[in-house]
Amino acid sequence: MRCPKCGHLEDKVIDSRLARSGYVIRRRRSCQQCDNRFTTYEEVVKPSLKVVKRDGRHEELNRKKLGSGIERACEKRPISMEQIEKMVDGIIEEIESEFESEAPSSIIGQKVMDRLEIMDEIAFVRFASVYRRFKDVNQFMNAVKGIIGQR
Ligand SMILES: [Zn+2]
After folding, report:
1. How many angstroms separate the alpha carbon of residue 38 from the centre of ligand 1?
2. Does 54 fall in a domain?
């Protein structure tokens, strides 16, 4: 590792310990030329998660896109941007812990619906209508009746 002080490339690790509950290794290094001491951190590189769409195409898990889909459903509903942000955070956290490198878009949609269903019926129905792509009005009405019937 290049010494930040003199630019020399050889150093000696003088201490190595776990940090952040073991997610990170912290190393104290000493430059072999000027004895400057500096610290480096090492952590696992998480590959970015891909979403597998219904037609089999893959795309990056896009935080912004997920957020704007939820925002649209929550338009003029008593749901704050903070609540939406928190929802997106929670969903991404779950997806990252449940899937290694790719997650089906249906699972992500289901997670959004599970949360909206608890938070706001109208937003839930709106999101579900886009997400499930109801073929006609009857199908949509049945879904709505289903929701009302559950209560
Ligand atoms: Zn140095």
Report:
1. 9
2. yes
**Average pLDDT of the chain to the nearest whole number:** 87
Residue 95 shares a structural domain with residue 116: yes
Return the biggest CA–CA distance within the chain: 77
Give, in order, the Cα–Cα distances in Å from 108 to each of 87, 92, 105, 135, 146: 12, 9, 5, 21, 21
Per-residue pLDDT, 77: 94
Distance 12 CA to ligand 1 centre (A): 11
Domain that holds residue 38: 11-43
Query: Using one digit for the tens of pLDDT, what is the confidence trace for 11-44?
Result: 999 999 998 888 889 999 999 999 999 999 998 7
